[in-house]
Structures are given as C-alpha cells and as structure tokens.
Write a structure and sequence with these properties.
InterPro entries: Mod_pep_NH_fam (IPR030976). It comes from Xanthomonas dyei. This is NHLP-related RiPP peptide. The protein has 112 residues and is mainly alpha-helical. It has one domain (14-110). It has helices spanning 14-24, 28-36, 38-44, 74-79, 81-89, 105-110. The longest helix is centred in the first third of the chain and has 11 residues, at 14-24. The termini are far apart.
Length: 112
C-alpha cells in the first residue's frame, strides 16, 4: 500500500489494530519498542508501510502520529480498546492522531 504525498499512513486492518492494542495493553517489551520507535514496533506486527529499518518518525513522516511523550498505561489502553480499535481502523487521513499519549487518550477519542 502506498503512503500518500502528505505521508499519512493507511488505516490499520482490524487484525493489525487488534494485535497492536493487545500488545500495548499487555507486553512491556513491545511497549518499550513502541515508545522508542513506533514504526519499528508496527513492523513487528506487519503494519502496512512500516519497516524495521525505519528511523524514529519525525514530523511529516508516516507513523509520526503514533509517537508519544508518554505512552498511555496498559490499563488506559485496555479500557479504551474498543474506541481505539474503531479509531485506528477508520478510513481517514492518519496524519495527526496522538491517541496513545497518556495525556490525550481520552480527549482524543472524545473529540470524535
């Protein structure tokens, strides 16, 4: 799948989103990888357009929207899993999401 010129990434399919949320709500090693470099973590689960060779996404790069200052807790992700699943699989422009940041998980989902 090709990423558009504005470097948005494609929406996740349901199984990729489910796997991502499962690992973010249970797996400390995956969470650490995701916090350091979401593109590499997403490559581990086969997300379209993600590569283990990717540098840490910078502003304007695909998957930059998945970077966080502080990843939301496992518990917060688990509690918001249904909403996050819907958000991540929505057919829309995924350039600025930041839904997984601990300071914005609820407010991002409530703005929908």
């Amino acid at each position: 799948m090709t990423v558009s010129a504005d470097n948005a990434h494609p929406s996740f399919d349901a199984s990729t989103a489910d796997r991502l949320l499962e690992l973010l709500s249970t797996d400390d090693d995956f969470r650490d990888c995701f916090q350091c470099n979401p593109a590499q973590a997403l490559a581990q689960i086969g997300a379209a357009g993600a590569s283990a060779d990717n540098a840490v996404p910078a502003a304007g790069d695909a998957y930059y929207c998945m970077t966080t200052n502080q990843l939301a807790s496992k518990e917060d992700i688990a509690l918001a899993r249904t909403e996050l699943q819907s958000y991540l699989t929505e057919k829309t422009n995924h350039t600025v999401v930041f839904a997984l940041d601990s300071d914005s998980i609820r407010s991002t989902l409530l703005r929908r």
